[in-house]
Amino acid sequence: MPDAATHTESIRSDRSPNQPADDVLSDIHVLANLIGQGFSGFLEGEYGLTVAEWRVMLTLGRYPGQTAAEITVRWAMDKMAISRALQRLEAAGHIRRERNPDDRRSYRLSLTEQGRALHDEILPGATARYREFMSCLSEKEIAELRQALRKLIDNASAASG
Predict the structure, then answer these.
(1) Residue 150 maps to which CATH number?
(2) What element of type H or E holds 121?
(3) Residue 66 CB neighbour total at 10 angstroms
(4) Which of 11, 49, 65, 124 could pair with 53 in a Cys bridge, judged by C-beta atoms 3.0 to 4.6 Å apart?
(5) Cβ(68)–Cβ(82) under 8 Å?
(6) Whole-angstrom Cα distance, residue 110 to residue 27?
(7) Does a structural domain hold residue 30?
(8) Do 118 and 47 contact (CB within 8 A), yes or no?
């Protein structure tokens, strides 16, 4: 896999005269893909989980009782990717579904005891990987990045919704 400098140089050299010199959205796509690849190798290699499955488990670990629709919105993911993740996690005994009393057409989801144990086993390694990705930024830079990303997410959500 090319290193970060190679990616950065590749992005700079791909700029055409008609593109803005600071194509931030392209950089965000590259970063998202690199982070996904970094987590994918860790999750699939060590635990046999996809990134989508881990996102579901991570969400249910923090917010038990979420519905599939709520998880889909939280991660801005494709409904089918979440649906496949839920099917695999349920078949493996990691999650359970209970009919949603507020909406009988949906289900509230939670980790099983087995799912909670797997979540708790993965979380330290995932957190270490997250910290590794973020280690090049200061606390101030992280706060500024978070603020800018939230603005972009809010704007993109309003524009697409």
Answers:
(1) 1.10.10.10
(2) helix 113-134
(3) 19
(4) 49
(5) yes
(6) 35
(7) no
(8) yes
Kindly give the parts of the chain with pLDDT less than 50.
1
pTM: 0.80
Query: Does a structural domain hold residue 31?
Result: no
Which residue range forms the structural domain that includes residue 116?
44-160
Token pair of 35 as six digits: 């982070």
Give the chain's domain count: 1
Q: Report the interhelical angle of 24-47 vs 51-62 (nearest 10°).
A: 90
Residue whose tokens read 């009919």: 99
Q: Is residue 14 part of a domain?
A: no
- CA 12 → CA 3, 7, 16, 33, 144, distances in Å? 15, 9, 9, 17, 23
Q: Which amino acid is at 86?
A: L
User: Which two three-digit tokens encode residue 47?
Assistant: 């635990």
134 within some domain: yes
Q: For residue 60, which of 108, 11, 127 has the smallest C-alpha distance?
A: 108
